[in-house]
Amino acid sequence: MKIDNLTSREKKIIKILINRNEYLTVKDLADQLGVSERTISREMASLKKSFKDSDLNIISKPSVGTTVTGDEEILKQYQKKLSEKDSLSEYSPVGRKRYIIKQFIFSDRFQKLTALAHQLAVTEATISYDLNKVAEWFEKRGLELNRKQGIGVFLEGSEENFRRAVIDFLYEDFGEEKVLDIIRNNVDSNLNENRNETEISKTKLDILNFISYETSNKIEKSINQILKQNDFQMVNSSYIGLLIHLALAIKRLENNEEISIETEKLETLKRTKEYKLAEKIAARLEKIFELTIPEDEKAFITMHLKGAKIRKNVEMIEEPLADEELEAIKLARTLVREVENKLNVKLADDYNLISGLTTHLEPAVSRLKMGMKIRNPILKDLKREYNDIFKITKEAAEVLAEELACEIPDSEIGYLTMHIASALENADFYFSRINTLVVCSSGIGSSRILAARLKKTLSNLEIVAETSALNIEEYLENNQVDLIISTVALDKYSEKTAVVSPVLVKEDIRKINNKIKQINISKAQEKKTKNITAAEDGSFEENLELVSRLSNDILKLIREFKIIEFDKLNNYQEIFRKICSGNYLPENFDKPKVYQALVEREKKGATIIPEMKLALLHGRSEGVDYPFISLVKLKETLKVKNIKNEENIDRIIVLLAPEKMLKEEINLLSKFSSSIIENENFSQIIRRGSREEFLKYFKELMSTYFNDFMLTQ
């Protein structure tokens, strides 16, 4: 007996009888289906004829009812088929679109319209219309649906874009947090309360058929071991992406399908350190799955690794930095500087911000250069909650886009916005007092109730008055009102008004907070335009003392600056001894302590900027009374180990600082350290080795820092 030959109502009757596994009366069935008992009797007569010679038996007993019997396995098969047919027939247009995409991704890149129409129980014309929507979804991911009359529809595009589409579909269908659970075969029945349980089960089976538990388990164990051995961490979304990517690759290779990547991109990726890690992962998987992984696939693995690494926090004088990390720091500082200029707020001294941006930008730069996309599931929320900051960050990021020679998509801008917005929150940027007028249509009584609720909920509102909509003009004329919170629309003042309900619900709070953010941004920009500065906490005497201390530091740095020349050296450590002997250091410095500080610092590895042939020699010590900078020129290049590689250097910047320093003094030295990377002219200055030219550059830098500092006092 073929299920397809039954009517919709007949299928429902059989499904109820199989699922209940008991005798049901005509009345029971009629009540469940919402039809008359006569209709049920007519349908039952037809069903008994249809199932006369089938592997199921329909048994009726007078005064008892009807049931379906048969082999347990056969009953389960019918139950599954009926569930699938039932769920497919109830698909909405959105559901059909998702089903069709799933067929191209999990089943075959070639599909027939007739087959899809039959599976979804709709006409071919409906499927043809659905394919237009499906084509748009694939086009956004760089893939194309090619329709061939009388044959079918082919999904065409690069391997890279196809894999991106697979991951996007899984994230859209289930969300990032559940994908890994599904792959690990751990999903529960509460996956999505709004989704049909049978449909969830079907999709889950498709995924597990695509990525079996056994395969994913073997891959996970392998990559976890290798990543741990190589101290390589990945964010959860990138880790899931790599796991799905590898599972797809193994399935394709086992089916002898070709995997290819552009030759130029392959050669570029082979020169990266991540490629070596990709080779280790590939070697392990080759052994486990008994197959050969080609170079092209290793390159795809490399792209995932380059786009996903997490590094430790960036500190001024701690771990040595690789070239990519130095580039990320430079871009982070550039972005922050642009945001500072637009908002008239000081953020460059926020090490958490610089560190966080650097951590994001290092893999982001790799992704952008390789044309890889990143998902940002909260992009819409970010644009809604931080619309102004998003726009400012996007404008600031244009400098980065110009430097990288590529477009920065909104998904990346969204993540950068998160870092900037968080820093502004921490800097109390949004928490200045907001002069607020509370307006209600029904009079002063209700406005006072609303005002009381506002005071309890939002501490930074300075409520200047509560009034009715009729008396609003007099308050706006006599008071400096930043914000109007009203229970009625005020068309004339809509730009500064947040319209809320009298009971102040959660959505109202969100609306008010967005207005407050807009007001603070406007205030900051006005302040910049008028060149008005606000006084920070601290007394006049304390500020004078701080200014005096920074002035002395800068004077010492200028007056004590030296250029030292060394002949041929045997090793890098010999520089430490030479610097800490003779007359190179100020007389009052404790040279043995300085030497020890340099040795301890360099045990962590040298900080090299290869393109400048420059080493940065940092040290903080009790033997140093005040900050000191000098330039060392080597007559012959010297090989120095930089983390794993050896690099040639012939210039060294020595930067010494006291063990105990004020935050402002650390910022001063950081200003100089970051300028080494950011200023393109610095390389030429140290190459020429002129004391006058170096000091001119240094004085201009310190002058900028000092002036900025004074504006905040």
TrEMBL record:
Q: Which residues form a coiled coil?
A: none
**Sorted alphabetically, which InterPro entries does this protein's record hold?**
BglG_antiterminators, HTH_11, PRD, PRD_sf, PTrfase/Anion_transptr, PTS_EIIA_type-2_dom, PTS_EIIB-like_sf, PTS_EIIB_2
Repeat as UniProt keyword: yes
At the top level, the lineage of the source is Bacteria
Print the keywords alphabetically. Repeat, Transcription, Transcription regulation, Transferase
- What are the PTS EIIA type-2 domain coordinates in residue numbering? 556-701
Biological process GO annotation list? Answer: phosphoenolpyruvate-dependent sugar phosphotransferase system; regulation of DNA-templated transcription
Leader sequence segment = none
Question: In this protein, which residues make up the domain named PTS EIIB type-2?
Answer: 434-524
The molecular function terms of the Gene Ontology recorded here are: protein-N(PI)-phosphohistidine-sugar phosphotransferase activity
Residues of the PRD domain = 210-315, 323-430
The protein depicted here goes by the name BglG family transcriptional antiterminator
Organism source for this protein? Halanaerobium saccharolyticum
Question: What's the source species' lineage?
Answer: Bacteria, Bacillati, Bacillota, Clostridia, Halanaerobiales
